[in-house]
């Protein structure tokens, strides 16, 4: 394994029993160790990305309940990339975010956290549809549908999307687009 469990514990600094439990779970650890440097994730292994997201969460200076939720989302959101089926055509029921939600459902009933784990990449996908694949109308319609679906969870989703986007060498364009489309809601 690329990093020792002690290294991961020292980097991720678990703050509660759930975080400690996750860092003992073999499937979870397999996911944290997975990864090689790639576009958007020059850091390689997932645990290094999670550390960057956690550092961004620390900078927000939010209340303890929101911070705890954001940390749990950060721990889980990309940890099941190693299980994702990337064959074509894509089967989106086998996306890493769906695997992550299913795993977390075994240990948490916090619907807000589960929903954000599952949907954490959607703004990026919709931005991609709008501006990379030149289908602005569909991309914006999907974004509006996501905003409606999130409802009161939108603020927490935004905090996480921001913390996740400000890592590695990710483009900031999806974040700026999301901020522009939601500025009247916060």
Give the DSSP E fraction (strand runs of 2 or more residues).
under 5%
Using the CA coordinates, give the radius of gyration.
16 Å
Q: What level of helicity do the residues show?
A: 55-70%
The helix tally amounts to 11
- Unreliable spans are none
* Overall 3D shape: globular
- What series of H and E elements makes up the topology? HHHHHHHHHHH
In short:
This protein is 63% helix and 0% strand.
Description:
By secondary structure, the protein is mainly α. It has helices spanning about 5-10, 15-20, 25-35, 45-60, 65-75, 95-105, 110-120, 120-130, 135-150, 155-165, 175-180. It has 11 helices and no strands. Helix 5 crosses helix 10 and helix 8 (about 120-130) crosses helix 11. The protein is globular and about 45 Å long.
State the main characteristics.
globular; mainly alpha; 0% strand; single chain; 186 residues
List the helices and strands and how they pair.
Blueprint: H1 5-12, H2 17-22, H3 26-33, H4 46-60, H5 64-76, H6 96-105, H7 111-119, H8 122-132, H9 136-150, H10 154-165, H11 173-182
